[in-house]
Amino acid sequence: MKITFLGTGTSTGVPEIGCQCKVCTSPDKRDWRLRTSVLVETEGKAILLDCGPDFRWQMIRNKTYHLDAVLISHEHYDHVGGLDDLRPFCRYHGVDIFAEEDVVEAIKTRIPYVFREHKYPGVPNLELHDVTPGQPFTAAGIPVIPIRVMHGKLPILGYRIGNMAYLTDVKTLPDEEYAKLKGLDVLIITALRKEYHPTHETVSEALDNIKLIRPKEAYLIHMGHSIGLHAEVEKELPQHVHLAYDELSFEID
Ligand SMILES: [Zn+2]
Ligand SMILES: [Zn+2]
Ligand SMILES: [Zn+2]
Questions:
Q1: Which one, of 131, 50, 121, 60, lies nearest residue 90 by Cα?
Q2: Which one of 43, 75, 207, 226 has the lowest number of neighbouring Cβ atoms within 10 Å?
Q3: d(CA 10, ligand 1 centre) in Å
C-alpha cells in the first residue's frame, strides 16, 4: 500500500493569506501546507481521502491520472471544496464518493447543478454512496472500516483501510472505536497546534491518543501555522511520531 500526503494543512492552509509569521514565510517547503488530503494506492486501486479546495493542484502536482473512489470525512469546505474538480476523472465513468448520509445531503445542497435531472453538459458525474457508521463497506473493491470521530460536538468519520487509518479533524474518539484501531502500521491523525482548541486535538492530545492506539508509526496532519516550524516541532516528537508534510509518500506492507 502506498500512502501519499497531498495536503497536511488546516482549513486556511499554510501560509495563511496575509500572514507574515515565521512559519508562513518559512523557506522550508515542509512548512507549506495545502488543505488536508491523502491518497491511498493499494491492489491497483487509488482511493482519495477528502477532496478539499486544493484538490486540482494536488492532482497535478502528484501526477495522479486515475482515481477509483473518494472517501469524505465531513462536510466542511476544506474537505469537500474540490468535488467539482473531479470532472476530468469523470470522462469515461462516474466517480464513487462515499460519505455519511447527512454529508451526502450537504454535498447535494452545495453543488446542486451536479445532481439535477437535466444536467448541464460537463458537470462531474458523481456517484454518491451512503456510509453507515459502524458498518464496514468496500470502495472500488477495497474493504474500508468507518471510524466514528468527534470533531468537537460534530460526529464525523475517519476511515481504516488495511493497517492504515486516517482520522482528520479529531477532538475525541468514542471509547468503542479504539478496538477498530488495533494493530495499525500507520495512524494518520490531526494535531492542529499546541494551544487548546474546542474542535481539534492539540499536539499533546494527539500524542495521548497515539499512546492509546499504539500504531507502529503515527503521522500528524491538519496543522495550522501556529504549531511552529516543521523542523523544530518534529524534533520534539517521540521517535515513531512524525509531522506529515505535503508530498511525503511511502509504502507499507
Ligand atoms: Zn478540516
Ligand atoms: Zn502565519
Ligand atoms: Zn472540520
A1: 121
A2: 43
A3: 6
Q: How far apart are CA 181 and CA 184, in angstroms?
A: 6
| Residue with grid cell 508562513, as numbered in its chain | 24
Q: Where are the alpha helices (DSSP H) in 69-146?
A: 77-80, 101-110
58 CA distance to ligand 1 centroid (A)? 16
C-alpha grid cell for residue 208?
495521548
Coil/strand/helix, residue 192: coil
For residue 226, give every residue at least 6 positions away whose Cβ sits within 8 Å of its Cβ, in sequence order, or none.
21, 23, 193, 194, 195
Give which of 60, 49, 45 is closest to 4, Cα–Cα. Answer: 49
* H helix count then E strand count, the chain: 5, 14
CA 253 / ligand 3 centre spacing (Å) = 30
Find the 39 Cα to ligand 2 centroid distance in Å: 26
Please name which ligand lies nearest the alpha carbon of 74. 3
Q: Are 219 and 7 in contact (CB under 8 A)?
A: no
For cell 502528484, the residue is 62
- Using the mean position of ligand 2's atoms as its centre, give its distance from the Cα of residue 172 in Å: 26
Q: What pLDDT, in 10s, does the model give residues 148-193?
A: 999 999 999 999 999 999 999 999 999 999 999 999 999 999 999 9
pLDDT single digits (tens) 86-99: 999 998 889 999 99
Q: Are 85 and 112 in contact (CB under 8 A)?
A: no
CA of 32 to the centre of ligand 2 (A): 10
Q: Taking the mean position of all CA atoms in its chain, how far away is CA 149?
A: 13
In terms of Cα–Cα distance, which of 169, 88, 78, 161 is closest to 123? Answer: 88
- Residue 30 Cα to ligand 2 midpoint, Å, equals 14
